[in-house]
Amino acid sequence: MAEICCGVVSETEANPACKPTSRAARRRRMEIRRFKFVNGGGGGETASGRKRRKLLGASESSFSDEEKRVGGLGDGRLERKAASVSDDSLSLIRVTMMTTALSRTQSSPAALELPNEYPKFGVSSVCGRRREMEDMVAVHPSFSRRRGEPTTELHYFGVYDGHGCSHVAVRCRERMHELIKEELAVVNAEEGSAPTDWRAAMERSFRKMDKEAIAWNEGVAAVHKRCRCELQSPECEAVGSTAVVAIVSPDKIIVANCGDSRAVLSRKGKAIPLSSDHKPDRPDELNRIQEAGGRVIYWDGPRVLGVLAMSRAIGDNYLKPYVSCDPEVTVVERTADDDCLILASDGLWDVVSNDTACRVARMCLSGRIHAPPRKNGAAEPAPAGMGVGERSDGPCSDASLLLTKLALARHSTDNVSVVVVDLRRSC
Amino acid sequence: MDSQSTATATATAMQDRFGCCFRNWMAQQHRDLDELLRAVSTDSGDAEKLKCLAGKNIQHFRDYLEARSQLAQHDAPSFFCPSWRTSFENSFLWIGGCRPTMAIRLVYSISGSDLEARLAGGGTGGDDNSNSSSINLGEVSASQLRSINELHIKTVRMEEKLSSRMASMQEEIADDPLALIAKWSGRAGEESESVERVMKGHELSLARVLTEADELRLETLRELVEGILTPLQAVELLVEMTKLHLSIHEWGKRRDSVLGKV
């Protein structure tokens, strides 16, 4: 979208060129695939939000285990000790505790006053108008610590929008935070209290994630007989996912992005994008792709080799190196003016501008607009799987819910996933 | 000759019964729609009454499906391209009816239609929603949205299963008994006892899949109406669904008459 402001991205770098391997062979395969698009229209999926043209022509009779789990109870659990909230299908979670122990002084320069504060956040993730759920969300409060003066808690938020199948997104949900955590542990050990080189750490983590996803893709045919993409096992490597990851520390927000999911900061009511979508027609991305020997072909929008509508992603081995897994990393200092952070898949951003999203979120945070109460006179059954600590009346949950509903009301044709993190000092 | 004309007469009578079953259902829906609309305007605060009404509508749907399931035992194929529906309706049929997920899609498409206005207004204040007399589908709560999403994913999976079964059944036509009987028969369309038996078998498979599809349609709607939505939301959904169904039928009829299809 036009409002993306690249200038805000403070720590970015185009990925180093990867060496093209056996390009001719790859191209041949692409030709074959392209034929299949023409012929394989029987799938009947026409949603314009599709990231990838329908590669799977055959009817899909079964879903993967992952998808079953996705389809299962979306219980946003909050386990204090494990500090992990893994969102499966849709959950709205608000963490309200842990703030009372500390008296906070609003005027203080941040952070250092509130080392143990859990962030408040809301998550909402729905299949929407798509028939497959390929969005995944991961939230891990206090997932890691950074050694320093004093030790600071780091909170993890990630949105992954899969394409081709959901399994790379599922892998990202399960592994990305672990890989980043490991990376940070190494950094802590090696560099001690020196400032973390976030860009390098995130790049390493994303590359590891990419390797894992590809390795897993290759093994998927053997292990996951029931994965729908397995029906055409060579297509397994045609599966990938976006990843937008935000690490919130008391004084900083670190965003690493790969693909066209997006992180936006609302600061004093103004929308500040913390990531810039990796679209194949973004001039620097187009250059990068062409320099690597790839092409961007317009076929229902710009697509790498006419296939993928984003220029970076985890997975998608057969589009490497044109499609890169290197994240762009943004580090911003938190200020007292910060309202909230919004991470979402393009199911939201396709139909809701950054400004509108921030405006809606702020309305919720300030209590000017409410999502419907859980109980409204008539008996609404409390659904099973409503986890402890889950409150649907929290402003952040209101915000994520309202944004999701707004996306649906505006006829978003894709899965919609929204995470809203409260960054206000005074709440 | 005599037996053939009797058979024709029976077939016509059968078609009449099918058409009658459908027309009764349409008439029922017209009556239900009136009642639903009345309830929304006068009893929107009476949850008990609305709940009753929603339950009654679900029961009507169940009655219709049961009636046609009985009829389908005699002639399932007729329900896959019913002559009593318009060609527009028929071209969008999924196993003899609408896709079960359509109910969920309808919730998405009509909910939040007032959201824009609320947001544009900067969020009308008020700690309760007394400002609006009805808690409409735009007011789907977080837990409801989650339940709808779960139901959606579950229903899609069931649909895919049935679709896949349907696909197999369609492909089986080109397989063992029928294809080989055709191959070895003297002339195309030669009658035989075995052909009749095999066709009857296919018809019964169709009847089974139709019944299961109907069950999924009913169960999805019932879960939404009785399990997830508030009574008022449920009644509103039923209004929109009924209206849509009746409208598509009327629009289809107009289209057919313009095209001279009677």
Automatic annotation (TrEMBL), chain A:
SUPFAM superfamilies: PP2C-like (SSF81606). Keywords: Hydrolase, Magnesium, Manganese, Metal-binding, Protein phosphatase. PROSITE patterns: PPM_1, PPM_2. GO terms for molecular function: metal ion binding; protein serine/threonine phosphatase activity. Residues 120-423 form the PPM-type phosphatase domain. Its cofactor is Mg(2+); Mn(2+). Its EC number is 3.1.3.16. The keyword Metal-binding applies. Belongs to the PP2C family. This is protein-serine/threonine phosphatase. It comes from Rhodamnia argentea.
TrEMBL record, chain B:
GO terms for molecular function: sequence-specific DNA binding. PROSITE patterns: DOG1. GO terms for biological process: DNA-templated transcription. Residues 15-258 form the DOG1 domain. InterPro entries: Seed_Dev/Stress_Resp_Reg (IPR051886), TGA_domain (IPR025422). It comes from the Eukaryota. This is Protein DOG1-like 1. It comes from Rhodamnia argentea.
